[in-house]
Write a structure and sequence with these properties.
This protein is mostly helical. 84% of the residues lie in helices and 0% in strands. The protein has helices at 2-19, 24-55, 58-77, 89-119. The longest helix is centred in the N-terminal third of the chain and has 32 residues, at 24-55.
Length: 120
């Protein structure tokens, strides 16, 4: 429920931003229409993802690795680190792979620790 609320708030901001480009007479109508269409899609979509995660737990791992991939790429392209990193495109992919593998390793480590704690 909290995730649905957060996604809905994010969606409201996106719809309001998209409606800003329209003529002022149509902005409110576009926001209302966007909310009426998108919120049910978000709720239904989250339920679908929840069912997929329950049936195929690997979806959770793949989703976490995707976030790690994105985080690795973002870290590589961060302006604070850019002057110290090589410019070759392969390094961007390397950082992305490292982020995904780091998330996988931490997840497996936490899972092992949790299983050990339950067994004790």
């Amino acid at each position: 429920i909290v995730a649905d609320l957060v996604m809905s708030i994010d969606n409201v901001l996106a719809i309001a931003g998209a409606a800003q480009g329209a003529h002022q007479d149509h902005q409110l109508a576009l926001v209302v229409f966007g909310l009426l269409v998108s919120i049910p899609i978000i709720v239904a979509g989250s339920q679908l993802v929840l069912k997929l995660m329950a049936r195929f737990p690997v979806v959770i791992t793949l989703g976490a690795m995707l976030l790690g991939w994105i985080a690795g790429q973002m870290a590589y392209s961060d302006p604070a680190f850019k002057p110290y990193l090589p410019e070759a495109p392969i390094w961007s992919y390397g950082a992305a792979v490292a982020g995904a593998l780091l998330v996988l390793a931490i997840g497996k480590m936490l899972q092992a620790r949790h299983k050990a704690a339950r067994a004790a």
